[in-house]
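2024-03-11 09:14:02 DEBUG pipeline.ingest accepted 1 chain
2024-03-11 09:14:02 DEBUG pipeline.ingest length=182
2024-03-11 09:14:03 DEBUG pipeline.predict start
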Amino acid sequence: MSPSTVVYNPTHAPEWPPLPTWRAAFLGALGLNGNVTDAAKAAGIARDTAYKAKARNSDFAADWQTAEKIASDVLLREAWRRAVEGGRTYKFTKDGDPIMHPETGEPYYEMVYSDALLTLLLKARLPEQFSDKLRVEQTIKQEPAYDLSKLTPEDKLALLAMKRRLAAAQAETNGEEGLADG
């Protein structure tokens, strides 16, 4: 076989067609904003192209998942900033002129924090202390099934009669008299 001969090996076949160069641009944009449509536009592809590539390529699907985690971290950082670090809100007169600080002469501002985001962050980070939900744990003890083959013929008949009486009583309660004879 000459060095230029290509042998097809189905167990080690490369993905065809290979992922084009848009992959890095798409994943980078997805990591920044978490939006597939915007990421596809940034990469210059159709949204469906990205989803098809994700379905066909496990490495790309794993990278996609990582990009989504990065986007979640971006959201968490912004929520943290608004809740803990706050932001400036400049004050203006009713005419729209900036109010100036009397001592510094700089535009006057107040620091504003988001109590709602702080509450959500506390609930996410410390659910045992800040969760609104009551946590209920229940353990069900599974009894072993009965081995009916060990019953005597008389016990089996008594059990069958009891089952029929129970079915008749339920049918009578539901207004279905006469249907329990089955």
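2024-03-11 09:14:41 DEBUG pipeline.report The helical segments are 22-33, 36-43, 47-56, 58-85, 115-125, 127-130, 153-173.
2024-03-11 09:14:41 DEBUG pipeline.predict end
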